[in-house]
Amino acid sequence: MADQQALDEVVRFTSDLIRIDTTNHGGGDCRERPAAEYAAEQLAGAGLEPTLLERTKGRTNVVARLEGTDPAADALLLHGHLDVVPARAEDWTVHPFSGEIRDGVVWGRGAVDMKNMDAMILAVLRSWARQGVRPRRDIVVAFTADEEDSARDGSGFLADQHPGLFEGCTEGVSESGAFTFHDGSGRQIYPIAAGERGTGWLKLTARGRAGHGSKVNRENAVTRLAAAITRIGEHEWPLRPTPTVWAALAELAALYGFDVDPDDIDGLLEKLGPAASLVEATVRNSANPTMLQAGYKLNVIPGEAVAYVDGRYLYGGEDEFRTTLDQLTGPDVEWEFHHREVALQAPVDSPTYAKMRAAVEEFAPEGHVVPYCMSGGTDAKQFSRLGITGYGFTPLRLPEGYDYQAMFHGVDERVPVEALHFGVRVLDRFLRTA
Q1: What is the pLDDT of residues 207-246, one digit of tens each?
Q2: Residue 224 in contact with residue 281, Cβ under 8 Å?
Q3: Inter-helix orientation angle 318-329/221-234, to 10°
Q4: DSSP class of 359
Q5: Annotation marks residue 412 as catalytic
Q6: Which end of the chain is more exposed for a tag (fewer CB within 10 A), N or C?
Q7: Are 208 and 221 in contact (CB under 8 A)?
């Protein structure tokens, strides 16, 4: 079991990493190297030999391998990203890069997404070094850059240019699962991620005839774009639950004593109450307009108008997504992928999933573990190019009233110290048995 020093270190590491500002503004504007050097120093302290790798100067990744006792066993990838999304200090109760520990809570950008998990990994491996613990499988640790943008300088670069570092890895574990979800009626649910929707960020371009704003214009690019955006925003996507989502629905229904009617998924979601939020975003594809760009003067009709849409599609749902976008945009608007990544699915009947479940249940026997599919995406998408099946497993025991989902990219991001201690214990238990 993780020792007391590991419990102390996970808090200190989380705070220290938060204080290293690794804000990813997008478009290459980020510098993860100081955090990467910090992580490498802690890995070296665990007896590992970390390698620092960069595609772009300052955009640093760290990879290390801990050899297991069974050379015939498949290796396990344990990964977390070092970058964070921007935060405006004036909006926060505490400075977002203070790493302040107040009233048993660690505050700051990255406390949940995901410097907490980075700290857990470091704390567990250093604890093992002190205790002389070796896992059965090789464990490859990767701390990545650029997850909060395109991953081009991070996991994409590692998967494409350094696949040999991940030799033998068949499964990976990262964000975000095994957290406490309180359903409001006393139940505590621990969802473990076994899938991700695909990323389909779109650029829409409407072209028309430029002209004077006072004249009749039946070829107005702004009008054409607005019509397409309205159709997309109002579209009702059909239900398409994947096997992972079906498994989630089945286990949640059983927990609440309901039958699953395949012809009435919306009815089941209504019965599940607050717990429906674990699955309702992943029963169908989605496309949400987010940005509009058009015009340069009020009385000039522009010849071109552009919009961006955050699209997400389920495993096996990309073809339907493309076909639907063709129909919704119509003949006067072109669309293309601004950024595209695959949807993922992982088996929920695998030995690895069973061991994650067992580790959570050992330290949270009152909890109910269920699988779920993430509505967004992680570095697991890029690592899947290497044949690595990805799970979301960042264990946290959270108090009632703590809005875990709101912490991601939100104001006043923070994590309880006790949640970090729980995470270290559960991660330690899982990795020892994996």
Answers
A1: 999 999 999 999 999 999 999 999 999 999 999 999 999 9
A2: no
A3: 140
A4: H
A5: no
A6: N
A7: yes
Please give the Cα distance from 292 to 90 (Å, whole number): 27
Query: Would you call 8 a catalytic residue per the annotation?
Result: no
Q: Are 266 and 259 in contact (CB under 8 A)?
A: no
Distance between CA atoms of 171 and 160, rounded to whole angstroms? 17
Residue type, 384: S
Amino acid 165 reads L
Q: Are 77 and 173 in contact (CB under 8 A)?
A: yes
The catalytic residue among 32, 83, 153, 171 is 83
First to last CA, the chain: 14
If 0-12 CB within 10 Å is exposed, 13-18 middle and 19+ buried, where does residue 246 land? middle
CA dist 15 and 415 (Å) reads: 10
CA distance 103 to 282: 36
- Catalytic site residue from 147, 148, 175, 428: 147
